[in-house]
């Protein structure tokens, strides 16, 4: 290279899901705080508490998300759907049994608690996907669409790493939500889905977080500086 950096050695430290990567952002005490969290009082204080028997679902998505198909998929069970961050409503009326509330933009801590509270989270982009992972609940990830179609490769690679094949219909649901496959949205059985999320997060939690790894890799720094 040329310029001020000429002769310097470059090191690339990428986030990821295996010990061969830099790990993910995870602040100290995050998982312990999630385990100690009681969703009932937190939701009630904001007017977002589900009625008895209602499933609680959060939706944070890009404009092209198939929200009408989602409404149809959710209609089979009483559901309170929380629309986050500008998520649009379907073009057709909400089906019977599906109740909807719009949630304002939230601070990060509050958005985390919303994710912890829900039975299912639909999230968009990379940051929200990581926070949905740490929530430990079933989730659907919408990637930012890229002109060269590489987002499809990213999704399929993540599905493979996550072990989506162990949950019937999960990989297909993720592809259909991202416009990569045609057909109706069908939600997988919730118990194997939840179990897969729990197992995947437990594995991720064994890795050092991204900040700790960066400090350990930096000359003159140690993880104890976190």
Describe this protein's structure.
- The chain is an alpha/beta fold.
- It is built from 9 helices and 5 strands; from the N terminus they run H-H-E-H-E-E-H-E-H-E-H-H-H-H.
- It has helices spanning 30-36, 39-46, 67-74, 108-117, 125-135, 150-162, 170-177, 190-205, 210-217, and strands at 55-59, 79-84, 98-103, 120-124, 139-142.
- Strands 3-2-1-4-5 form a 5-stranded parallel beta sheet.
- Helix 2 crosses helix 4 (108-117).
- The two termini are 33 Å apart.
What's a quick, concise take on this entry?
This protein is an alpha/beta fold and 226 residues long.
What is the average of the pLDDT values?
91
For the largest beta-sheet, the strand count, sense and barrel status come to: 5 strands, parallel
Q: What's the SSE pattern?
A: HHEHEEHEHEHHHH
Q: Detail the poorly predicted runs.
A: 221-226
CA-CA gap between termini: 33 Å
Q: What is the tally of beta strands?
A: 5
Structural class: alpha/beta
Spatial sequence of strands, sheet with the most strands: 3-2-1-4-5
Radius of gyration: 19 Å
- Number of helices, counting only DSSP H or I runs of 4 residues or more: 9
Shape: globular
């Amino acid at each position: 290279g040329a310029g001020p950096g000429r002769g310097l050695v470059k090191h690339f430290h990428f986030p990821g899901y295996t010990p061969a990567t830099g790990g993910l952002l995870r602040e100290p005490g995050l998982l312990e705080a999630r385990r100690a969290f009681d969703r009932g009082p937190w939701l009630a204080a904001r007017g977002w508490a589900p009625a008895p028997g209602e499933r609680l679902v959060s939706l944070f998505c890009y404009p092209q998300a198939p929200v009408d198909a989602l409404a149809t998929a959710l209609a089979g069970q009483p559901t309170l759907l929380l629309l986050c961050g500008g998520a649009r409503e379907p073009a057709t009326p909400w089906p019977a049994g599906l109740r909807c509330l719009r949630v304002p933009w939230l601070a990060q801590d509050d958005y985390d608690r919303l994710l912890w509270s829900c039975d299912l989270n639909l999230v968009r982009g990379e940051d929200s996907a990581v926070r949905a992972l740490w929530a430990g609940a079933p989730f659907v990830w919408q990637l930012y669409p890229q002109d060269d179609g590489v987002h499809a490769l990213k999704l399929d690679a993540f599905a493979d790493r996550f072990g989506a094949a162990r949950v019937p219909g999960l990989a297909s649901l993720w592809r259909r939500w991202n416009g990569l496959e045609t057909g109706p949205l069908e939600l997988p059985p919730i118990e194997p889905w939840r179990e897969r999320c729990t197992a995947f997060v437990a594995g991720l939690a064994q890795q050092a977080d991204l900040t700790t790894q960066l400090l350990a890799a930096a000359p003159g720094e140690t993880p104890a500086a976190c």
